Queue: 2 jobs
Job 1
Amino acid sequence: MTPRLSLETNQQQLKQLADAVSCPCIFDAPLAEHSSWQIGGPADLLLQPENADHVASVVRFANNRRIPLIVIGQGTNLLFDDAGLRGIVLKLGHNLSRIAISNHRITAEAGAWVPGLARKAMQAGLSGLEHTIGIPGTIGGLVLMNGGSQRKGIGDNVRRVWIVDPEGRLLELSREECSFSYRQSALQGTGAVVVKVELECEREQPQRIRRTMLEDLRERRCKFPRKEPNCGSVFLSTSEMHASVGPPGKIIEGAGLKGMRVGNAEVSQQHANFIVNRNGATSEDVLGLIAHIRQVVHEKIGFELCCEVRYVSPDGEILPAHRANI
Ligand SMILES: Cc1cc2nc3c(=O)[nH]c(=O)nc-3n(C[C@H](O)[C@H](O)[C@H](O)COP(=O)(O)OP(=O)(O)OC[C@H]3O[C@@H](n4cnc5c(N)ncnc54)[C@H](O)[C@@H]3O)c2cc1C
């Protein structure tokens, strides 16, 4: 995200930043508490901005001083390193989560929690977000990942996105400029911070929307592990893959890897595309297990599995977890 001079960040500069921006900040923030995998060492500084101006100030500060900066929502698609992060985490959560509805359009700040947003749309009789009801992240993270379920993506409903660019400027982008495709958007890897989103929905009876959402939640409860910490689907599942070799969960199960363990990371017994933390797993355990699954699947069917889950290195690089160096 940021050009870097070294892994060392200057504690004095971070204190200066914390004093300058009037938003909640935590020094030496344990990242395990900000990831649904519950894995990760301390970040030098974690800030929770309350408006786009806070975001812009932090981005400008970090970039001018070449301090690594990452943006997170709920950390439901992220594997932090056991060594943590030598830099700044900008966490967009409940401090930046206002939602407004006008006719068939919804405007949501980036930190809005996706299931809460989907429920608000249902109450207003707006259809289109039913498939997101069980996704536990923020709308900012969902837009960046073009996340969704039932082979849909949130990009289908996006009308406009407001970002803070790496220079700290607030820009408005159209859906076309975001170039959404399966679990991808043009925003990925650019250093853009999504601060607000406008979604377009269709009118429908709330009862019908509610029924669809309840079905989705019921199916998830049966299929996905619920008790052990996890980050959702680990490997990408594209349409081409479905047509040729099938979904990743089936492939991994077919390769005899259900229940396979490295340290305290385990391929879920319930759904083989989930890796669960069996109490005290490390990032090394998870990366080791990912590497092992990819190797076995490649040997058995000659297919290269790619990760949907992102790994965050101690110097702030975010990349698909299978590309992490271990
Ligand atoms: C139990 C479970 C079920 C899941 N089911 C699904 C599913 O059905 N479909 C699906 O698509 N995903 C699913 N996920 C994965 C995850 O919830 C989504 O990818 C979600 O959109 C990530 O949101 P987040 O706020 O947690 O983002 P994070 O995990 O915090 O971040 C993910 C990526 O987005 C970036 N990011 C986050 N917020 C912003 C922002 N405001 N601006 C710029 N970049 C940002 C981060 O830098 C990172 O690269 C599931 C996860 C879990 C734990």
Note: The domain at 225-323 is CATH 3.90.78.10 (Uridine Diphospho-n-acetylenolpyruvylglucosamine Reductase; domain 1).
Job 2
Amino acid sequence: MSQLVFSLSVDDGHPLDLRIAERLVKHGLRASFYLPIRNAEGPPVMTAAQARELSRHFEIGSHTLDHHYLTRVADGEAWRQIIEGKTELEQRLGQAVTGFCYPGGKFHGRHVRMVKRAGFAYARTIKNLYSDAGEQRFTVPTSLQFYPHNRNVLIKNFISQGSYTRRWPALQAIITEDDWLMRIYRLFDHLEQHGEVFHLWCHALDIERLQLWRALDHFLGFVARRIPPSRRLDNAGLIGDRRRNVALVFPDHEKVM
Ligand SMILES: [Zn+2]
């Protein structure tokens, strides 16, 4: 019998994350939201009050201070982005923040060391096509992004990210499927048979721009029918920091907002 675990990461702290949260509550699923304090790329970030409300039901991780790619700034600035992103978010939430996500998935070894030194318990990447939580707490991979990537992008990502032996089975399972959304369902089916973790990630702004709300809602409903509550984890739960695994909210229990 499958023991597949499901987790969802939502990046960038856009106010529309709250709409994703509503759907997660509806389906009784957990997720981890990664928030920068500001987004230098332009899109708005939710208010402190909204972040606090979200943190009552979901894990909130840090996504730096300004959403700067760490590999594009000097080391001193990278450190400031990491440490101040953490402390400012903790002040806003009034609680410790133990999860981190590298903006753009970009980092070098020295950034991993900075994230550890700042006191985080784990860090997430955007490496895809993984069927488990990886071995390293500070380079936690994902399975797939909820985004209409075409086949060439998937193949390019596959080639650029390495770990070919581990990632090939997932690519092989989905690459013959023409439709991007069907690929996500197919990967779920594949991992249910052969994997340990399905880790989906997304940006609320993509969902809005591409009008994927119904598609996302259907997929989350499908996940809720296939994965029992005990195997719906946030990323803190995924990496074994169970103390931080935020309690699951069930439909009709409480309105998120
Ligand atoms: Zn981001």
Note: The longest helix spans residues 75-93.
